[in-house]
Amino acid sequence: MAESSVTTDDALRCGDLTDPVRLAHLAESGLGPRVDDRMEWFAARVRRWLEVPVALVSLVRPDEQVFPGAAGLGEPWASSRRTPLTHSFCQHVVATRRPLVIEDARADPLVAENLAVRDLGVVAYAGMPLTDESGHVLGSLCAIDLVPRSWRPAELEALADLAAACSIELRLRLARVGAERERARRDDLEESLRDAVDRSQTLLEVSRSVADSTSMEDVRAGLAGLTRGGLEPDHLDVLVVGDDGILQRLPGPDDPDGADRWDPSGEEPTPPALAVAERRAVYCATRREFDDVFGARSRGRLRDLDLHAVVAAPFLGPRGASGALVLGWRRPREFSPADLLLVSTVTAYTARAIDHVSWIQHRVTVAREMQQALLTQVPDVPGLQIAARYEPADAEEYVGGDWFDVSPLRAPGQETAVVISVGDIVGHELDAAIDMGQVRSMLRQAAWDRAAGPPSLIVHAFETANAGAGLDAAGTMVVAHLRRRAGGRWTMTWVNAGHPLPILVTPGETRLLEGHGRLFGLPAGVVDERGDQEVDVPPGAVLVLYSDGLVEQRGADIDERTEDLRAFLAQRGTTEPGVLADAVMGEFGRRSGDDVVVLVVRFD
Fold first, then answer.
1. Under 8 Å between Cβ of 305 and 327
2. Which of 245, 265, 255, 195 is closest to 220 using CA atoms?
3. For position 397, which CATH number holds?
4. 379 and 528: one domain?
5. Residues of 397-418 as b/e, b for ≥16 C-beta within 10 angstroms?
6. Residue 587 shares a structural domain with residue 460
7. What are the strands, taking DSSP E only, across 118-202?
């Protein structure tokens, strides 16, 4: 949405703040300048989802606006829960009956003179209408920023979804008021009004559940709320369109094997396949109606499930039908317009949730692919067997700030040399992963430029580039040169920049390679300067480097955990590097809440 470009007079001519029906519904809602738990829930959710300092549920009266729901509002407004219309952006949402999105109120002619800019510090604003059942706009659900902001489509869509759910809550309250009034006048409508309330509660519960979905399993679990109140089906199936364009059934808690009860393959149409193909709800009240539409295979499946009535409705989104919901009953059932409206509304919410889940899964896939691209492919080095393992703290996005690197340094007439490193960027998740990729590349370049060593010069050259390029990454690392001398003997020269101590397993001894220096990215002189260490490595020795996530665990002593790791390696040090790396990760990494890297090198 673009910024508003209409004038205040133009906006206020579009609607009437004094509409008696609208004002009656405001009064019937029972909401005013007092805290309401449900409205507070919506305001808090907007503030969290959109990451804004202020979020409001604002109901607009002829001379003021009141806030039954508020999050982040400053004083004195947080106590009074009201402002005059001179401080109201939300009045324009009510007047125009449309969303209002403003990136910088100070430059927008519609609201530049509004006193909310001066007194409340409102700069960026996004408000979505809150409506009753007849379409009257009672107020707005709004997000407010105190600095200019370009609202992203995903943010506005999330705000619209929450406004729709908040509108349902308002309608529910109004429905209750209407139910009570009608019950007093006409007792014969009691059952139908109670049913309407139940439907609204079911819709609110299901919409709230599916809106929070981050996986298809969450979507399936959220729709289970349809089995309580309102429709109360005996059978529920959720099918989604797979990458191959074929409907795939999501397994439920009562059938975890995921057997497909409505197989979409074959020439015969099934209820969900027909609903998706024709983009409409398909329903049959009796087995006879079902038999008139569907073939023998579907008729047999209906009887296998002991169902009489079925409704299948598609999940329709911007990119077409993403799947279908199937409900069934073990008795004939007539479908009222309210039944079909409830199913249609639920599937509309679910379609949004499926799109959101697909976006999350795409983001996870991209993040994992990026992380895999950032991680080193371990090269083949004559005389060495090398294995590496990596597990991020964020298991869903598979990104983190730890790294390992193995880079052969070979030149004609020189001995075989390999530079290896293990490190940990301060921070987690995507930002740390981005910094890690740059640090590792810069460190590798420094290693080539300083191939003769020692490793401390490599780290110094990297730090110079790190500061000069303005990356300013900070963390810990171990950088080591492995050189094969004449006669096949290996030596290891290393420098430790604040990193956990490497462990060298040799026949008869397992020891920590001592020697700490300051972390990289810190000013020189904060602690002692780093020094290089060197050790001769006998054939058959195993070197293990790792990140702190392997030995740091909440409630445990890091020195004790390091000693446990040393003892573990003493028993298994002769194991093939890949097997040993897996064993170490399985024993120590599974309890870590941090990124974990393990690099194992065996010297032949």
1. no
2. 255
3. 3.60.40.10
4. yes
5. bbbbbbbbbbbebeeeeeebbb
6. yes
7. 124-131, 137-145
- Among residues 366, 389, 410, the one where a domain terminates is 366
> Does residue 176 sit in the same domain as residue 209?
no
Band of the pLDDT at 604, cuts 50, 70, 90?
A: confident
- Domain identity same for 57 and 145: yes
Q: Are residues 338 and 448 in the same domain?
A: no
Coil, strand or helix at 2: coil
| Structure-block tokens of residue 278 | 């024709």
Q: Are residues 16 and 120 in the same domain?
A: yes
Closest C-alpha to 70, from 87, 52, 85, 95: 52
Residue 533 C-alpha from the chain's centroid: 44
**Domain count within the chain:** 3
State the virtual CA torsion across 371, 153, 216, 337 in degrees, nearest 10.
-170
In a domain, 195, yes or no: no
Whole-number Å distance between alpha carbons of 181 and 136: 20
Q: Are 134 and 176 in contact (CB under 8 A)?
A: no
CA 236 from centre of chain: 27
In this structure, are 206 and 331 located in the same domain?
A: yes
The CA-to-CA distance between both ends of the chain, in Å, stands at 65
Structure confidence by residue, pLDDT tens digits, 173-193: 999 888 888 776 765 545 555
Sheet architecture: strand order including 247-249: 247-249, 235-241, 320-329, 309-317, 282-284
Q: In angstroms, rounded to a whole number, what is the distance separating the alpha carbons of residues 120 and 3?
A: 20
HSE (side-chain half, CA atoms, 13 Å) at 345: 21
Instruction: Please tell me the distance from the alpha carbon of residue 383 to that of residue 103, in angstroms, as a whole number.
Output: 62
Return the SS3 of 296. Answer: helix
505 located within any domain: yes
Among 183, 213, 228, which residue terminates a domain? Answer: 183
Q: Each residue of 561-570: pLDDT tens digit?
A: 999 999 999 9
What is the C-alpha separation between 95 and 281, in angstroms, rounded? 35
Could you give the CA distance from residue 563 to residue 547 in angstroms, rounded to a whole number? 15
* Beta carbons within 10 angstroms of residue 201's beta carbon: 18
In a 13 Å sphere around the CA of 221, the CA atoms on its Cβ side amount to 11
User: In whole angstroms, what is the distance from residue 489 CA to residue 72 CA?
Assistant: 66
Does 482 fall in a domain? Answer: yes
Average pLDDT rounded to a whole number, residues 327-331: 92
Residues spanned by the domain of 305: 200-366
Question: Using only C-alpha atoms, what is the Rg of the chain?
Answer: 32
Taking the C-alpha atoms of residue 436 and residue 402, their distance in angstroms, rounded to an integer, is: 7
- Cα–Cα nearest to 216, from 94, 96, 356, 391: 356
**pLDDT higher than 50, residue 13:** no
